[in-house]
Amino acid sequence: MKTKFLKLSLLALFIFTASCSSDDDKNEIPAVVTTKVSNLEAPQTGGQGQPVGGQFTKFSFSQNKVVTDNNWDIAFRGTTIIVNGGAKIGITDEPERTGTGAVSIVSGTFASVTTFPAAATFAQDGNATYAFPTSGANAWYDYDSTTHIISAKAGKVFVVKTHDGKYAKVELLSYYKDAPAAPTATSVSRFYTFNFAYQANSTTTF
User: Fold this and answer.
1) Is 25 contained in some domain?
2) How many domains does the chain fold into?
3) β-pair type (74-77, 34-41)
4) Which positions, given as ranges, span the membrane (predicted)?
């Protein structure tokens, strides 16, 4: 009788442990994966003293692809990057802002950015204002006026609040097709390569 009782107790303990383990697995937050996007084309018309225009290439972090609807997070045209939040900047052919997107710029390596910046550090696009600056200390690129080469600025990580309130961190790597280590005057421009990590869950870490 005691042996039977012991066996039943052990069975109950096993079922309880397995159930807890199963619940823990369900509640486990999936790891954030870093994804590399290569050769995202960002053509434009005009330039070289002529009015700049052309449609923006809109990108969704959650879908990891170029989209044509309003579910975009950031968009590219030439050296201009915009976010789906705020108001129109006032440039030709820019898409409507239908989301709540914003950007916080963090100095450091991509791997070192593991928590979301403070809400007050996020900025949106607005009248003549870019959340991804194109000039100044926080510009995403450096321009060499002698070689006319555009180089993604090292040590800048852009934490993006997406159009629907999630977060992604972005590291811009290259503005040239196939991301050459040392671009030259013959390198084909307006092709972005970047890393991103998208946090789809309601946590504050990457």
Assistant:
1) no
2) 1
3) unpaired
4) none
In a domain, 164, yes or no: yes
79 in a domain, yes or no? yes
Q: Give the position of tokens 């800048």.
A: 156
Q: Is 115 helix (H, G, I), strand (E, B) or coil?
A: strand
R_g over Cα of the chain: 23
18 or 57, greater pLDDT: 57
CB 77 within 8 A of CB 51: no
Question: Residue 143 and residue 148: Cα distance in Å, rounded?
Answer: 6
Are 97 and 85 within 8 A, CB to CB?
A: yes
78-137 per-position pLDDT tens digit: 999 999 999 999 999 999 999 999 999 999 999 999 999 999 999 999 998 999 999 999
Q: Please give the single-letter amino acid code of residue 26.
A: K
| Domain range enclosing 141 | 37-199
Asked whether the predicted pLDDT for residue 157 surpasses 90, the reply is: yes
CB 175 within 8 A of CB 189: yes
Threshold 0.70, pTM exceeds: yes
Per the CB < 8 A criterion, the answer to whether 73 and 84 are in contact is yes
